[in-house]
Write the structure tokens for this entry.
Amino acid sequence: MVLNYIWISFFIIAFALASIRLIFSGDTNVFPEIIGSTFESSKTAFEISIGLTGVLSLWMGIMKIGEKGGVIGVFSKILSPLFSKLFPDIPKGHPVTGSIFMNLAANMLGLDNAATPLGLKAMEGLQELNPQKDTASNPMIMFLVLNTSGLTIIPISIMVYRAQMGAVQPTDIFIPILLATFFSTLAGIIAVSLYQKINLLNKTILAFLGITSLLIGGMIYFFTTLSRQMIDVYSTTTANVFLFIIIIGFILAGIIKKINVYDAFVEGAKEGFSTAVRIIPYLVAILVAIGVFRASGGMDYIIGGVKTLIGWCGIDNSFVDALPTALMKPLSGSGARGMMVDAMTTHGADSFIGRMACVFQGSTDTTFYILAVYFGSVGISKTRHAVQCGLIADLAGILSAIFVCYLFFGHTI
């Protein structure tokens, strides 16, 4: 229902802004630009779906091997104490907890292409437990918000973009992103827990948060002792080794379990293909709405207004030039990526704005894209409090990114 209102609002606001531009400034190009954006966004949505087909087929095939080989069940048992608190509606030891863990692990290592099919597999498992098939369940919302909060330990893709844009130290945004995304995830968990009346003050969750905080603190200290070159080596190697271990480990588990590994892979790959086809209408709907809003100038007006407001408050507004990346990230990953690259091109990869745009890109995830893809893949139309909690996590990530960048890269607020 919330997505319905947001989707309609994008079109209404875009039409109003375009009409104002046409009447008061005589901008006759505004409506052709908007119509052009609908075609371009539709094409982009289809290309994304087609691009996902191969990846989905591969990873859902691997996941099927892991499921039949018992690996997912092992992860479920290990995570059962924690997940029984965060996901109280999931039966203890249910295989879906293993799928959730694999998705979150891929996200933390910046493996976006692997995370999406793993997440879709987890969402299918959650839908099987869902008593109301058109309405998001509590576990679905917690899982989705954990995704939209964008918890990332190794932001490989952003480092690569910085290197391509000529950054002297492409990895200097590593620790700022780690801090910002940690607070974003923490805010998302708290928001969902308040909505769902989950008690966070129990030994299991407190122990998990404490251990996680210590691990992140230890990682931050460890990486500060390394050279920039060594950070690149460690982060890239870790991510790729982890990915390869998953593939080999699942295959070996299937062999040990004496299942037909090839048939299991093909079975899962077929599911991946059908899932990719299923999400096309949802992606077209959300990306066209976003494209229309951008073409109408709505994003430009928001940025201008925020910059003026910040200036009136007497606060340094240097960060506002990087804000388009932050505001676009919940709407479109490719759009935010383009704005990040544009910020580095315009201001320099090693500028305050260039670095902050990169931290914004890594601090949260594409909330509305994830809503459209994950809920669309299982036919969910009533999202309940998923959007609100996802946007709370996004806001926490944005605010954390601003303060962290001022702390690490200079400037005084």
